[in-house]
Amino acid sequence: MTNKEDIIRQLPCWDGAVDPEPLGGGITNHNYTVKDSRGKYVVRFGEDIPVHHVMRFNELAASQAAYQAGVSPEVVFAENGIMVLRFIEGTCFDESMVRDPENLKKIIPLIRQAHREIPKYLRGPSLVFWVFHVIRDYAATLKKRQSRMVNEIPWLLDSSESLEKAVGQVDLVFGHNDLLAANFIDDGDRVWLFDWDYAGFNSPLFDLGGLVSNSELDKSSEKWVLESYFERPVTDELLYRYEAMKCASLLRETMWSMVSEIHSDIDFDYQKYTEENLDKFRVQLQAFQKSEILK
């Protein structure tokens, strides 16, 4: 069976012979770096993952539109579950870097730019990413496969139903929907956003809630994020809906990991990731429920 390095070497996009090197860090895809005489690139391998609502036609279209919108690196080649992007020399963020106020001043305009500008360049069919549908679908998968976490599903679904009611009606933007710290890279002049596996039309509250919860921003920074994104003071009504969506983003990340425990072949400790995110979700949900009582 041909290995991934051999497949990469045979791609028709290179100028001369190449020697692929594995690129660590991915928890959905297998990634490599490649140099040829014209530059350096990232090669992403990824089949469709229907269980995670990841469809590669959608990722490719989003990545191409994100480049045209000035948000992401250029896609230079794509075929059969392989995408080659121009490599960005820079520093991938970690959670502490996202929390840095100076970095947040770059991140929030970038997110707003993605939300507003990508639809102008998006071509072909596109997915909608509605987190509460994803959660229900994950629950069905976990039950079918008799996950070790199957006894947790009833209360998680009940929580999700309450959160969906609290979120209420939403505005639609084109969301990234996976704003982990590692999906931002700073080249010294600007910040880029990449990895559009889960891209789709969604509420901006989901990306904002995911950014805050994934990198554990404090309340002061969280308020700044919301006011900076919406460019106005945040009302109590918007804050309430945002807090519900933030809970939902943590629940989705938790259940994503539960499903990945069963389905993924990537070398990553998904069980530990599940437990970490489930703890975060419990804390956030309790805080949200307390705020409901105080209202």
TrEMBL record:
This is Choline kinase. One of its GO terms (cellular component) is cytoplasm. Pfam families: Choline_kinase. The keyword Kinase applies. One of its GO terms (biological process) is phosphatidylethanolamine biosynthetic process. InterPro entries: Kinase-like_dom_sf. One of its GO terms (molecular function) is ethanolamine kinase activity. PANTHER family: CHOLINE/ETHANOALAMINE KINASE (PTHR22603), ETHANOLAMINE KINASE (PTHR22603:SF66). Keywords: Kinase, Transferase.
